[in-house]
Design a protein that fits this description.
heterodimer, A: alpha+beta, four-stranded mixed sheet, two-stranded antiparallel sheet, 7 strands, flat, B: alpha/beta, three-stranded parallel sheet
Chain lengths: 162, 68
């Protein structure tokens, strides 16, 4: 919608027109403030951890395990050079000791969600599917971070009692 | 052709060039949440009259919810 609006502005004679294509979903997913009657906290984008480790398919597992261990995370996302999620290294892959390539060890095509998803919907999905984390990507597949179920449940409780 | 920009460039334009943010979604979505300082001109009402409130000498940044 915003590309059409930006073009419309130009047609109306505005000379300096920009299109923030990722919009307020992107803004909120980076923890930046939003105004209005609905708190940003009701969407999962406000609760995403963007410090989750990522690696490339060509990386070696020995090096990746060491790097992931140092971060304290128990998962690592495999991304393309443009940051698009290709796969995931879970606990089993990270617990091994073989030095294969990441591409050989990763689980392909993990399910992802958008930061605009309602937090309560995300929590329900995690409970139903018995998930402890959900990878969050932009609509172009680029990794934003991870939603932890524990954090999401705490946030829902806080919202309910507010 | 309008320039597509990312979040960092939005912040720079706001900070350094006093850009004007315009949310083009319907009013109820704008009322729910919008970027700080943004005004609302829904796409369907975007014409000479509704844009009269904008300063033509300053940049205009249009946005909606996401890429869709």
């Amino acid at each position: 919608m915003s590309p059409r609006a930006a073009s419309r502005f130009e047609a109306l004679g505005f000379a300096q027109v920009y299109d923030y294509v990722a919009g307020k979903a992107d803004w909120g997913s980076f923890g930046l403030p939003l105004e209005g009657r609905r708190p940003s906290e009701t969407r999962l984008g406000a609760h995403v951890h963007s410090d989750v480790p990522a690696c490339a398919p060509s990386d070696r597992m020995l090096e990746v395990r060491e790097r992931v261990r140092a971060t304290g995370w128990d998962t690592c996302f495999v991304t393309s050079e443009h940051g698009v999620v290709l796969g995931r290294l879970g606990r089993t892959a990270l617990a091994g000791d073989d030095d294969v390539s990441v591409e050989q060890a990763m689980t392909l095509g993990p399910s992802t969600v958008r930061p605009s998803l309602e937090l309560d919907t995300a929590v329900e999905r995690m409970r139903t599917q018995n998930l402890t984390t959900l990878p969050v990507t932009r609509s172009d597949g680029v990794l934003i971070g991870v939603l932890r179920r524990e954090d999401a449940e705490h946030a829902l409780d806080s919202l309910a009692s507010a | 052709m309008p320039t597509a920009i990312d979040r960092a460039e939005v912040q720079r334009l706001l900070r350094e060039e006093q850009a004007q943010l315009v949310e083009v979604l319907p009013p109820d979505e704008y009322e729910d949440e919008h970027l700080p300082g943004a005004i609302n001109i829904p796409l369907k009402t975007l014409d000479r009259e509704t844009t009269r409130q904008l300063d033509r000498d300053r940049p205009v940044i249009a946005y909606c919810y996401d890429y869709q």
